[in-house]
Design brief:
384 residues; alpha/beta; Rossmann fold; Helicase, Ruva Protein, domain 3; five-stranded parallel sheet; binds adenosine-5'-triphosphate; binds magnesium ion
């Protein structure tokens, strides 16, 4: 971990340098004033430990110049309450009063590093493996052409479609085709998070902001910084939070719960729902102003039964993947099975198709999959 120490007092600077040399996992660089540090600071530094009272630029000015780009710990000989408050407002992680034991400083460093590590660990990438995107029908090709145009911009996208049509897959695809492809892609399902936790999940909270807030939590908006935030099942977002989301999207900044500091965010928003949002607006469940903000580019993903021409190619490709995955000799569908696959209505769309094919691959005898291996009757599919 690369750390910058900014301290004008030569004795303090040298003694910190010597003491920190005992901790080889810290790579420490010392500077006698903020101006020298600013010349050398780059992205490889993870933490700054700075004195407050220094001639020229003081620690507070220094922290303001850094504008939240680094974690900061202040070390000071004369702490005043106003300085402490100002530091907290600037997002400074810790405030140590000189003289302090080196272990106290190391503990403070470790605390800040934990927050950082958590932030990194919780920032997953898009799960879609490149080349695994399936779909060749004219309806899908048209959709993909819109997607590729929209991906180049930061415009909000609303993905609409039945369950299992691939809304999350498309969201991933948009992210991968955008200039944000190497930054986090974070998906949050509004229906999967208890209503009272959605706000802190999205915006995070400061340590101590409520009884259970034993440490600072970074919200998904911050974790997705530079990347894409996919808000799935957006219709499930509590009404009370919808106004807050709208404000965040308009002002492009968030505030962690319990903090008065605004944090700039650079996040592309993609939302998805299988609900009828216009109906929800009429029923007073969804804010119309938020709807217009999210709906810059609405993309409707057609259900599988409206793109029947691609059912067989998807089924064959999934079957091939299953045979490799389970170490089976290659299998294929007979004509009757192919006809059934094409005639069935697929209410569960691609998700259902994938599961039907996987089960057939596992339960069928030999290398030929017949209609009975598909078990479509159990799903209400009549005789053909
Ligand atoms: N075009 C596609 N190519 C490859 N896999 C796909 C495609 N579309 C969907 N899938 C697969 O189908 C399943 C369902 O897709 P996904 O979760 O994106 O659907 P969804 O529209 O978000 O559904 P829900 O509304 O139920 O959340 C996933 O396993 C996904 O990998
Ligand atoms: Mg989904």
């Amino acid at each position: 971990m690369k750390i910058a120490i900014v301290e004008d007092d030569i004795n303090m600077r040298k003694s910190l340098e010597i003491a920190m040399a005992e901790y080889p996992h810290f790579e420490v660089h010392t500077f006698k004033n903020p101006k020298d540090a600013l010349k050398k600071l780059d992205e490889s530094f993870e933490l700054i430990i700075s004195d407050i009272n220094m001639p020229g630029m003081d620690g507070i000015e220094f922290a303001k110049t850094l504008a939240g780009k680094y974690e900061i710990i202040f070390i000071t000989g004369n702490a005043t309450l106003s300085k402490a408050i100002e530091s907290i407002q600037l997002g400074v992680k810790d405030f140590l009063l000189k003289p302090f034991e080196i272990e106290t400083l190391v503990a403070a460093i470790e605390r800040s590093a934990t927050v950082q590590k958590k932030a990194k660990k919780a920032a997953p990438k898009c799960t879609l493996k490149s080349g695994s995107f399936l779909g060749t029908s004219p309806a899908l090709e048209k959709l993909l052409s819109y997607i590729h145009k929209a991906a180049r911009t930061d415009a909000s996208i609303l993905l609409l479609g039945e369950s299992g049509v691939g809304k999350e897959v498309f969201a991933c695809h948009i992210h991968e085709k955008s200039s944000r492809f190497d930054k986090p892609f974070i998906a949050i399902n509004m229906a999967a998070i208890p209503e009272n936790l959605i706000e802190s999940e999205l915006f995070g909270f400061e340590k101590g902001s409520f009884t259970d807030a034993i440490e600072t939590k970074i919200g998904q908006f911050e974790l997705a910084s530079g990347g894409t935030l996919f808000l799935d099942e957006i219709a499930e977002m509590p009404y009370s939070l919808q106004a807050k989301l709208l404000r965040v999207l308009q002002e492009r900044e968030i505030r962690r719960l319990g903090s008065s500091k605004s944090i700039k965010i650079d996040v592309r928003i993609i939302c998805a729902t299988n609900a009828n949002l216009q109906q929800n607006i009429q029923d007073g469940k969804f804010r119309e102003d938020l709807y217009y903000r999210l709906n810059t580019i609405p993309l409707i993903i057609p259900p599988l039964r409206e793109r029947r021409e691609e059912i067989l190619s998807i089924a064959t490709s999934v079957l091939g993947q299953n045979c490799i995955q389970y170490n089976f000799c290659s299998k294929s569908f007979n004509d009757e099975a192919k006809a059934a696959l094409q005639l069935y209505t697929w209410p569960g769309n691609i998700r259902e198709l994938i599961s039907v094919v996987e089960r057939a691959a596992i339960l069928s005898d030999g290398d030929c999959i017949g209609v009975s291996d598909l078990f479509l009757e159990a799903r209400g599919f009549g005789r053909i």
